[in-house]
């Protein structure tokens, strides 16, 4: 991180603490997915895996003594393959180890094709307050191309049951830029989703990632002009439907932003437990920010005595860029004080790069904030190169 300004180290401050819990199994691996997920092969070792998760968390206690957990996200894989009793064991065990804050947000990912819908109330009783349902599309053709195991009706029923089961909020995941997807099909997905009245929508473009089936056998995707038309018009449609874009691919009704994801993007702290889970923890007294990675494969994880595969200190000179890589995903202004408290770096560290970005029309600046322009939101990766 280069700068012509003289900078002074600042004291780190503890941000909110979250917990990410990874459950790695799916019914089958989707061709676009590069997450650490594994197709189900026989009966899942639910009880043994929950035991391992809680021991994993116990081994991380030295990082967070005296703190509370403000949000939890149970992701995967497909966590709804685990029954509500095991989800309750996880949450009760975690709460016994690290106290939960009042009004904690606890999100669980769910796949419409794996849920017995009568179980929604059971997951709610287990402590889950928010669901994130992986719909991706309401088109039969597109669901087949994406390797999804549910159909349009199951997706709609799942959303309706989530609404009826007393959850404080639920999210629907939608993708656009799908193989051979027309503009009309993309807009129809938004309309169908909005008719189900989810408080939150994640709407993001399909990207072809390495080590996926789509990477080895690429499908025919819409061209750049068509993708831009879908994105631009989709944003306008979502806004007209009452959804505020607060992150690059996240839209919410007022008051229903995902607190867990906000903590990620604001460079907050989070423990990660489970196969391949990542964590980030601030240790102010030691002037350290560390990142942790857990053992990736289920067999290795279940047989381990120490679940941490890697623990790395974030170098002081890398903190500013890491902060920006997260914070620039949000649509809100970047508080200069937040930058200092979360990184331990003086705001002057960014002076040179911010000046270049301002000259290119990518952001504006006030005494207390930096704010991306519309052009800046379109060219975030280009902006980040100013700080490398």
From TrEMBL:
Which cofactors does this protein require? [4Fe-4S] cluster
Q: From which lineage does this chain's organism come?
A: Bacteria, Pseudomonadati, Pseudomonadota, Gammaproteobacteria, Alteromonadales
Give the highest taxon in the source lineage: Bacteria
Task: Give the matching NCBIfam families.
Answer: hemN_rel
Species annotation: Shewanella vaxholmensis
- Provide the leader sequence positions: none
Specify the protein name: Heme chaperone HemW
> What positions does the domain Radical SAM core occupy?
11-244
Instruction: Could you list this entry's UniProt keywords, alphabetically sorted.
Output: 4Fe-4S, Chaperone, Cytoplasm, Heme, Iron, Iron-sulfur, Metal-binding, S-adenosyl-L-methionine
Cellular localization per UniProt = Cytoplasm
Gene name tied to this protein: hemW
């Amino acid at each position: 991180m280069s700068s012509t300004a003289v900078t002074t180290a600042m004291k780190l401050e503890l941000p909110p603490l979250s917990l990410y819990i990874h459950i790695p199994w799916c019914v089958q691996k989707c061709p676009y997915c590069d997450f650490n997920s594994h197709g189900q092969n026989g009966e899942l070792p639910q009880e043994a895996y929950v035991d391992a998760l809680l021991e994993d968390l116990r081994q991380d206690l030295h990082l967070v003594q005296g703190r509370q957990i403000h949000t939890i996200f149970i992701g995967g894989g497909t966590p709804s393959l685990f029954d509500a009793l095991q989800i309750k064991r996880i949450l009760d065990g975690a709460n016994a180890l690290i106290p939960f804050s009042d009004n904690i947000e606890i999100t669980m990912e769910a796949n419409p094709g794996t849920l017995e819908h009568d179980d929604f109330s059971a997951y709610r009783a287990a402590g889950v307050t928010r669901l994130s349902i992986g719909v991706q599309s309401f088109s039969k053709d597109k669901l087949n191309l994406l390797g999804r195991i549910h159909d349009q009706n199951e997706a709609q029923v799942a959303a309706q049951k989530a609404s009826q089961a007393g959850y404080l909020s639920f999210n629907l995941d939608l993708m656009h830029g799908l193989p051979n997807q027309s503009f009309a099909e993309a807009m129809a997905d938004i309309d169908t989703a909005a008719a189900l009245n989810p408080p939150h929508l994640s709407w993001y473009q399909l990207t072809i990632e390495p080590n996926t089936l789509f990477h080895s056998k690429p499908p025919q995707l819409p061209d750049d002009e068509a993708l831009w038309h879908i994105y631009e018009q989709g944003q306008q449609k979502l806004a007209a439907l009452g959804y505020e874009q607060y992150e690059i691919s996240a839209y919410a009704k007022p008051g229903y932003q995902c607190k867990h994801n906000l903590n990620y993007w604001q460079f907050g702290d989070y423990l990660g437990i489970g196969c391949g889970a990542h964590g980030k923890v601030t240790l102010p007294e030691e002037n350290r920010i560390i990142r942790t990675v857990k053992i990736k494969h289920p067999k290795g994880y279940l047989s381990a005595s120490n679940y941490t595969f890697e623990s790395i200190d974030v170098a002081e000179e890398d903190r500013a860029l890491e902060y920006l890589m997260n914070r620039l995903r949000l649509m809100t202004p970047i508080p200069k004080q937040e930058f200092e408290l979360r990184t331990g770096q003086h705001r002057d560290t960014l002076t040179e790069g911010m000046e270049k970005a301002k000259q290119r029309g990518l952001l504006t600046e006030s005494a207390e904030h930096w704010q991306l322009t519309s052009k800046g939101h379109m060219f975030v990766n280009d902006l980040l190169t100013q700080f490398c």
